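ping. complex inputs:
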Amino acid sequence: MANDIETYLRELQAALASAGADPALMQDALFDAEEYLQAAMAVGGKAGRGTATYEARLTAAVQGYGTPEEVAGAYLGTPVSSAPLALAEAVHQAAAGAGAVTVPPPAYETALVTAPAEASAGVEPATAAEATMAGEATAVPASTVAAEPSISGAAPRVPPGVPEMPAAPYPPGQQYPPGQQYPPGTQYGPGPQYGQVPVGVATGMAAAAGTTAPAKPTSIWYDIFGVFADGWVWKSFVYMLLSLVTGTVYFTIVVTGISTAGGMIVLIIGIPLLVAVLGLVRAMAFFEGRVVEALLDTRMPRRPRSDPPGMGFFERILFWLKDGRTWASMVYMVLMLPLGTIYFTIAVTGIATGIGLITAPIWGWFGDHTFIFEGVTYDWWLPAWGIPLAVIGGVIVLVAWMHIVKWIGRGHAAFAKAMLVRLP
Amino acid sequence: MILTPSTPEFEEGTSEVVSASVRKFQKELSSGIVSLALLALLAHAEEPLYGYQIAKELEGFGGGLPVKQGTLYPVLRSLEAGGLLVSEVEPSVSGPPRRYYRVTDEGRQAIGLWQASWMKTREFVDAVLEGHCGK
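pong. complex structure:
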């Protein structure tokens, strides 16, 4: 069963998908589950902080929350609009009819006194509930919706009833290493801290919608030529082109940063420099994660990896130094120079060779073709029998290249995830 | 690691028919009561609360929550869709952003009436159960 939060979320997604939940509902359910489990893990859960292992605390949290099947059942069994709407409407009408039932905010008990128990108010909710049980959908009274106060939220709020964005795999939250504790009394209230920004959850999820695509047609021809219709493969191609630039930048920053800081570490100036490099590496790891998610169809953290709250400056630095991801990210960035060069070369030579061969007949029509190599002039021409061969060869090269791009994209996504996110 | 599902515990010898009926009854019973409890809690709350806080608060009452905490979330969303709650998403320090819920004016009106309805229902059910019904 689930031994980390991401596994649980995947199981929940699978349970919802197998029950035929619609994408927006699935997204809500995953959001809620991640919120609960992360919060439960942050405060230690039922098992108590500091006394239990990560797994034991997660087990307790999941037991409190429910198994994926139970939770999926709860979401599917709860009508999102009808019951409360019917009740809200009944209350609305009752309040309008009774006139006097205007309840001051905190003291809802007074409503008990003033509410006409024998009047329609007491009866209407019951009938409304009956109507709901019978499965009747109740229309939204315009006044109820219009009167709904809206909070200026950090994230865009989707009005009820409006279909939300397509299904999306849920962002993996940062996992906290086992045994990592929070100081007692820490407030977990809202508010931007540690440079976190409100995450456009909806937008981010829409961007990652890719794994819930409908079943693709299966035929040998689709297997061979379908890659050209797959948008993600073209995005992989873009990533391969981009990786030369990003790889060079990452490599340069890490190598110069570490060698400069390392060289000056005996002087005092080397220490703040090292800290700056570590911070930069973590920021770049987050950025690279965003690029990988956008272009390589894999879920990466939507937020910078957060440090535990309540840490002083030196504690934070120590945490960075002890965090394996810092070092894995650094290795990844150094490796990105050779990898980026290889990816770029494959991307460019593949498409150039393929298109060049396919269009060879066209070039054959235009005059002489000479090239000079080591002082000797060569002349080349394409004989008539070679034209179909060149075109067929070009198609083969292009198709093979596209498959290579696809597999490099997948492979690199897994590599990036392993290095930047998933480290025990 | 094995997670045991939290079905109600039955004494040995309870037949499958009975235990299934208990589960079904609990499910039907909780559907309205959970809404009532959530709305009451949020109407009392001084500040917006997010799901985990709500679950923990409710756990502290009586013998604890009769349902899995995961089942509270869909009810919260359902109440929001009905206009009795509003929510906003805030970033959090320790993980994913959280959805904070608070009661609307309609929600405050509703809870009073819901409570009246609940009182009547409870009185009636208690009376029936005590055998005073057909007096």
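Residues 1-7 of chain B have pLDDT under 50 and may be disordered.
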